[in-house]
Amino acid sequence: MKAFIGVTDFDWYSFLSAIPDLDEVNFWQPSASSQFKALQPGEPFLFKLHSPQNYIVGGGFFAHSTILPASLAWEAFGIKNGANTLKEKRRRIEKYRKTTPSPTEDYEIGCILLEEPFFFRKDEWIPAPTDWSPNIVRGKGYDTTFGEGRRVWDAVMLRLHAVDIPAVQDERRRYGDPVLVTPRLGQGSFRIIVTDAYGRRCAITSERTLPALDAAHIKPYIDNGPHDVNNGILLRSDIHKLFDTGYVTIADDYHFEVSRRIREEYENGRDYYALNGKKLLLPPDSIVWPDKKYIRWHNDNVYKG
Predict the structure, then answer these.
(1) Digit-coded pLDDT (tens) for 136-167
(2) For residue 23, which of 15, 61, 155, 305 sits 20 to 30 Å off, Cα-Cα?
(3) Is residue 125 classed as helix, strand or coil in its secondary structure?
């Protein structure tokens, strides 16, 4: 199993480590020049402070990487970006950017979405790998099965022994060979992963204006619907509202259905009825298509027919 040690600053670590019960964080990169591809979902991403504080101070489990406008990253993750406000977050980002953007520019940043984050107290900090070069700016990957990668990972697992993190609960994972674990998604990660899975376009209308798109739960989270890409679909915001209130739905064969109740209750809906029967624009990879058990739940429990 691989691990990646990413470089971060003390302020980011200090801010997030003070928040109890975090389920996810956005490890942002100030530049959107390249997308992070060093890990597979479930592999560990560890936090190392800038020199001279050459210590590993926490980590999380990789879920997804993407490039987002700074405003959307804030909408999705809020303080889980490591700042109290979008203005403060921009100030921290711009400290590391080579150019100074205008105050109104919604520039893009790299985003590494991490689940089940953990942070160590100062007396638990782990010395950086002995082969760590002072010239490393972003980070470095390691194999956790031997050498410095194994030493660091064993030290991490020792500190997590008493912590209730699902990804590291059983004894085999704590003390045996490293195991790839699929992390549970938080709300922000769910939103971004669904958005990217659908190519950033509405599954019904093909709308591509990001601020107008919502990652909708098919079975609502409040009804025990999981933050899972198979329980999600990307919809234009007005269609999302109609979906949540039962005026539209998805059929088992992945076509769009519009309830007669829109016409009966509002004497309107021409634009929506024009979409009735349309096949969904699904992701290329069928493994992330909506699960039919959630579709049937929506039809049985929400759709007005």
Answers:
(1) 989 999 999 999 999 999 999 999 876 655 55
(2) 155
(3) coil
* Domain, as residue range, for 215: 187-301
The pLDDT tens digits of the residues spanning 86-108 come to 999 999 999 888 778 888 899 99
Contact of 256 with 276, CB cutoff 8 Å: yes
What HEC string does 167-187 produce? HHCCHHHHHCCCCCCCCCCCH
pLDDT at 175: 45
d(CA 149, CA 129): 8
The number of distinct structural domains making up the chain is: 2
What tokens does 105 get? Answer: 């520019």
Using CA atoms, how far residue 108 sits from 16, 29, 100, 148, in Å, is 22, 10, 13, 34
User: Same domain, yes or no, for 170 and 212?
Assistant: no
Closest CA to 117 of 18, 190, 224: 18
Whole-number Cα distances in Å, 148 to 4, 126, 142: 12, 12, 8
8 A C-beta contact, residue 68 and residue 192? yes
Which residue carries 């549970």 as its tokens?
A: 184
- The pLDDT, as a whole number, for residue 170 is 41
CB-based contacts of 31: which residues, under 8 Å, 6+ apart? 97, 109, 110
Judge if 47 and 110 occupy the same domain: yes
Q: What digits encode the pLDDT tens for the residues 248-279?
A: 999 999 999 999 999 999 988 899 999 999 99
Give the alpha-carbon dihedral of 69, 75, 79, 84, to 10 degrees: 80
Look up residue 99 and give its DSSP letter: S
- By C-alpha distance, which of 103, 111, 109, 124 is closest to 64? 111
